From TrEMBL:
Record field: transmembrane: 24-45, 51-75, 82-100
UniProt-listed Pfam families: Exo_endo_phos
Gene3D superfamilies in UniProt: Endonuclease/exonuclease/phosphatase
Keyword annotations: Membrane, Transmembrane, Transmembrane helix
InterPro entries per UniProt: Endo/exonu/phosph_ase_sf (IPR036691), Endo/exonuclease/phosphatase (IPR005135)
Protein name: Vancomycin resistance protein VanJ
Organism name: Myceligenerans xiligouense
GO molecular function: catalytic activity
Ranges where the Endonuclease/exonuclease/phosphatase domain occurs: 118-320
Domain of life: Bacteria
């Protein structure tokens, strides 16, 4: 046997097992840096610049930042990088610090008032099926968005005697088992919106004999859109400021805000509103899109009363899931 034949197996072993560059600590530095950035985005997303909607974009996908963190962990394991693998602990700890309390705390529902909120979609033709899902929650008050004029009477007939009281302004409306009074439009129009853009209203619900009225705001804030320069949030943010001004000027004993806010509670742009009304943080509350919910943008918030539980309901013909809130009134 020649020397070349003796050398061939060794040469093959060398080809099969290429030498790795660096050590387990020096490999994967770039992956580790990305993990650090993910942890920083989780912990300090409120400090991100609002230009191009960056802060809103990160806040909207905040719980989903766990996905790239896990993918980077797998990459670190494949590269046998101790640095990249250990760096995963940073976003993991940050994610747990933010979301574990929301997942571990069980709500204690107290429901003097049950409020159901739903963006029904103006393309939803299953009115009876939608109403069936909403009524199954046993609501005292139902707040709907995207109720175009041709749909108002259809929903009124479908709710029937269960919710005989109704007030509608523009494309938002309130149907109630309890009497309503003092309904008025709330002007949330951003720049460029015409006089026909009516997506806010205020109405007083009368919960019982001698009890104070509960002011309910039905709102549908402008959508955000991906644009070449980033996430376009200008119109929505203007409407948020207008809503906050209306809430700050409202001296009602109890206020409830229900609607499609097109923003998550983690979004710093919503802070002017969440400084005045609050919502419990139990679970993720994902409502959009209904086919595969990824973001919680449908809300019921309160002041002078407490939303003790917020849960999603079954899917309807809309692209949003409805939510039901248990509201505790302080004087009951």
């Amino acid at each position: 046997m020649s020397d070349q034949q003796h050398a061939r197996p060794g040469r093959r072993r060398h080809l099969r097992e290429p030498r790795r560059r660096g050590t387990v600590w020096s490999r994967g530095i770039a992956t580790a840096v990305l993990q650090v950035l993910l942890a920083a985005a989780l912990l300090f997303h409120e400090l991100l610049p609002s230009a191009s909607g960056l802060a809103s974009l990160v806040a909207t996908g905040l719980p989903w930042l766990a996905v790239p963190a896990v993918l980077l962990l797998l990459l670190g394991l494949l590269r046998r990088s101790a640095t990249a693998t250990l760096a995963f602990l940073l976003p993991a700890a940050a994610w747990a610090w933010i979301f574990w309390p929301r997942l571990s705390e069980e709500p204690v529902p107290r429901d003097d008032l049950t409020v159901v909120q739903h963006n029904v979609s103006d393309e939803n033709r299953d009115i009876s099926g939608t109403v069936r899902v909403l009524l199954d929650a046993g609501p005292d008050v139902v707040v709907l968005e995207e109720v175009t004029p041709p749909l108002v009477d259809q929903y009124t007939r479908a709710f029937g005697d269960a919710l005989p009281h109704r007030e509608v302004r523009g494309t938002v409306g309130v149907w109630s088992a309890l009497p309503l009074r003092d309904a008025e439009k709330v002007d949330l129009r951003p720049d460029g919106a015409g006089p026909g853009w009516n997506r806010g209203m205020r109405v007083t619900v009368l919960p019982g004999e001698g009890a104070p009225g509960v002011t309910v705001y039905a709102v549908h804030l402008p959508s955000t859109r991906l644009a070449p320069a980033g996430l376009d949030v200008a119109a929505r943010n203007q409407s948020i400021e207008l809503l906050a001004e209306a809430l700050a000027a409202d001296d009602s004993d109890a206020v409830i805000v229900a609607g499609d806010l097109n923003a998550t509670l983690d979004d710093p742009a919503l802070a002017p509103v969440t400084a005045l009304v609050t919502e419990p943080r139990h679970g993720f509350g994902l409502t959009f899109p209904a086919a595969f919910p990824m973001v919680p943008i449908d809300h019921v918030l309160a002041r002078g009363a407490a939303v003790t539980e917020l849960r999603t309901l079954d899917r309807t013909g809309s692209d949003h899931l409805p939510v039901a809130a248990a509201v505790d009134l302080p004087w009951s």
